[in-house]
Amino acid sequence: MATIKDVASDAGVAVGTVSKVLNGQYVSAENKRKVEESVRRLGYQMNYYARGLKTRYTYTIAVIVPDILNPFFACLVYHIEKELYKLGYKMFLCQSQMEPEKEAYYLRLVSQNKVDGIMGITFNENDAYFTGDIPAVIFDRHFRGPVCCISSDNFRGGELAAERLLAGGSRKLLYIRTGSSLSSETLKRGQGFASKCQERHASYEMLDLGDDADFYPEQGILEALKSRMEGGVPSFDGIYTSTDGLALEVIKQLDHLQIQVPRDVQVIGHDGLRRMNRGDYLVSSIAQPVEDMARAGVECLLRQIRKEETEDITILPVTFVEGGTTRIT
Amino acid sequence: MATIKDVASDAGVAVGTVSKVLNGQYVSAENKRKVEESVRRLGYQMNYYARGLKTRYTYTIAVIVPDILNPFFACLVYHIEKELYKLGYKMFLCQSQMEPEKEAYYLRLVSQNKVDGIMGITFNENDAYFTGDIPAVIFDRHFRGPVCCISSDNFRGGELAAERLLAGGSRKLLYIRTGSSLSSETLKRGQGFASKCQERHASYEMLDLGDDADFYPEQGILEALKSRMEGGVPSFDGIYTSTDGLALEVIKQLDHLQIQVPRDVQVIGHDGLRRMNRGDYLVSSIAQPVEDMARAGVECLLRQIRKEETEDITILPVTFVEGGTTRIT
DNA sequence: CTGAAAGCGCTTACAG
DNA sequence: CTGAAAGCGCTTACAG
Fold it and tell me: Which protein residue lies nearest to nucleotide D2, measured between its Cα and the C1' atom?
């Protein structure tokens, strides 16, 4: 690989001069031409790490998610990478697996001048790493600290789901959630749902299956549904779940119980997943604007890196999408 | 952040001495103790990029796939990251989007001393970048060059699919594929299928929907199926597809055509996808040992980085998995 | 405007 | 065994 030195001697100028044209600073037209010529001839490529030693910028971002087997996280990472690429940044992918040590390990990267910033979805109590002097963006979780948060309108999503279930004729609503209770932003889905049900004087129940149900959901879901049935007839006729993945599991169990969707029970999930991110929605759902969230997150992070002002929290709108598990009205 | 200099002065030794204990070289027990003490007290963390300037190793690997919206690619990347993390490597995630320029951009990274090696799935004719002096591992595609290839036994997979369809009672078999014809390893799926059909003297047809069908498959698939029906009765009763994604699309169209799976037509896909990588298989399928492939790929890459000998090509075994779209025998 | 030099955080011969 | 020094590829005051 050619270095800046090779370019300098090839062009017959000092390395400082080469550095200047590389960084778009002013040099005489004559020298600029010579340097550019040499760069081309030698196929010179800047070593950003060497530069980073002085400038403290590596043009590298760490993205942390629990894992990319979850289609929603995969979709988020997909869009973040696209956005980052456009802006000349490279992306470290870090899967925390929900393990605090692995999360901490990756969070530490940033303090070693290895990345310019960090963004993603964290679930553990690593707040200590977010000291405010490190550019960071967190999705769906609001820190008390100075970390930017990007989220979609979860409360409104819950409201929308209730509205749709009611519009489709459901009268006995059920909300089911799983997972960590730490991610406070997503808790608002249930809150919005309950709020709308109260406003409409609709009968509803809130069901929290907890963390374990994320990994072995069949059991818990089946029992929960069964215990709400009498003589083959369910005590609910409309279900909203905290994620599409959970909605799919619920539908599978309803199927086992010979309950037809959407005829007997309507189901609405949350996230708006589609296979390969195109074509039909997997279930009727409250869709998050993932691409916009990714873009907003990247923009917010870059503003922090450039030491510009940023919003503390950004909330993007959600929409209802039809996926065949609700009655069309 | 503390630097090696800070540690040296804190411990009262020369920076070279600190470097030695950091790299496990021999120093007096006394100095070793002092340095380790200072490292702990100052919370020193090595800057690997600075080290890389001298050593040429960054402990960073670039992984290239078309995108991670494809669940198979996501699963591969998932396991690669886990493996790399264990070994102290960080992973750049590069989504080529099948665009030659983006692929080339990322391939160039390696030649800039930014990564120690590169692995993944490439589809474009960027062979020129694989010159043999760059550690590289490619999945599912055999280069004429000196690049390592990791693959599962695609030919055997095709055979297995044919065997299973026949065992389940199908007599008129159909193979459907889509996508680029460049990935020579996956072409073997059809070859194995055809070979087994011939061996068993079974009637079969090979159908190639080409590249476009990857993006808007509904049309092409529906027409292809329709043209093979007469009076509502299909001319086939067993289908093997080149991927699970395609199998799902085919099943959707069969559904539209009122053809029941697996009663009327059995369907077997390829890859062995499961939602979130656990639970039931999405369709009956030929499962690739993704985790083993990831592990083998990482090991092969690290051997290259350490300049050890490696196999040119590694082929791992596949298995048939039941996913509800074949008749149980 | 441009060149020579110091320095970013590390490693590695080279003396001692 | 250990310290002083040079150098990895770059940037950035500082003279000129």
Answer: B17
CA distance A259 to chain B (A): 20
**Is there a contact between B117 and B107 (Cβ–Cβ < 8 Å)?**
no
Distance, CA of A285 to CA of A241 (rounded, Å):
9
In contact, B251 and B260? CB cutoff 8 Å: no
Looking at the structure, tell me whether residues A239 and A310 fall in a common domain: no
- Domain CATH number, residue B264: 3.40.50.2300
Q: How does pLDDT run across A64-96, given as a tens digit for each residue?
A: 999 999 999 999 999 999 999 999 999 999 999
Q: Are residues A100 and A249 in the same domain?
A: no
Strand D positions within 7 A of protein Cβ atoms: 1-5, 7-13
Residue B117: in which H helix or E strand, if any?
A: strand B117-120
Estimate in Å the CA B4 to C1' D12 gap, whole number. Answer: 23
A304 and A267 in a common domain:
no
Best of B73, B75, B275 to disrupt the A interface by mutation (most A CBs within 10 Å)? B275
Q: Are residues A231 and A146 in the same domain?
A: no
What does the pLDDT look like over A155-184, one tens digit per residue?
Answer: 999 999 999 999 999 999 999 998 877 666
Q: Does position A267 have pLDDT exceeding 80, yes or no?
A: yes
Range of the domain at A270: 154-288
Contact list, B63 vs chain A (CB under 8 Å) = 93
Residue A84 contacts residue A298 (beta carbons within 8 Å): yes
